[in-house]
Write a structure and sequence with these properties.
There is one protein chain. This protein has a five-stranded antiparallel β-sheet, with no helix packed on it. The longest helix has 15 residues, at 4-18. It starts with a helix and ends in a 5-residue tail after the last strand. It is α+β, with helices and mostly antiparallel strands. The chain is built from five helices and nine strands; from the N terminus they run H-H-H-H-H-E-E-E-E-E-E-E-E-E.
Length: 182
């Protein structure tokens, strides 16, 4: 499989050009520096998850549109496009394009770390399913406790997720896209 940097590079350029947007315009809309965008499009940048979310919002697409690579019928445990951050380890495990599209991510919430999200992009929703472990999730100060088997629709405003034990918590995040496009 290709490196995430190469996949992101091609997708940012493709989506930006499809919208007839210059690097300067994408920089203005996203708040991401033009030199950073240039290095991302060249495949030499190392994008953070937050930067990718910000670019997805500016481009009017889903995160999966930036990191998507054709997902094979058989995806082994050590394969797939990685979407790691300081507080999570994850990968795209499915991209569904029927009706409202959906991206499915396998995510490990790292013990001792707080995952901070800026919330949903317009027209999207996020559902968190806990596979193992225990987490708190929600708007800071109004978090709920989730255990294995629990499902929670994450708030549309900024939220946090944190493992409540000294071990990582495994989860699936399902993000619906309003356009149904893949």
């Amino acid at each position: 499989m290709a490196q995430v940097e190469d996949i992101v590079a091609g997708n940012i350029r493709r989506l930006r050009e499809a919208r007839q947007m210059s690097l300067s315009e994408l920089s203005r809309r996203s708040g991401v520096g033009k030199s950073t965008l240039s290095s991302l499009e060249a495949g030499t940048g190392n994008p953070t998850l937050q930067t990718l979310w910000t670019l997805a919002g500016a481009l009017g697409c889903g995160l999966g549109d930036l990191i998507n690579e054709q997902i094979p019928r058989l995806l082994r445990a050590n394969e797939g496009v990685r979407v790691d951050s300081e507080s999570t380890r994850g990968r795209v495990i499915a991209r569904i394009s029927a009706g409202a599209g959906m991206d499915v991510y396998e995510v490990m919430f790292l013990a001792g770390k707080v995952h901070k999200s800026s919330g949903w992009l317009p027209g999207m929703s996020e559902r968190l399913y806990i596979v193992s472990g225990e987490v708190s999730a929600g708007i800071p100060g109004a978090e709920v406790t989730l255990s294995a088997g629990d499902t929670y629709v994450l708030p549309s405003e900024p939220y946090v997720v944190r493992s409540l034990t000294d071990t990582d918590a495994a989860a699936l995040i399902m993000i619906t896209r309003p356009d149904g496009e893949g």
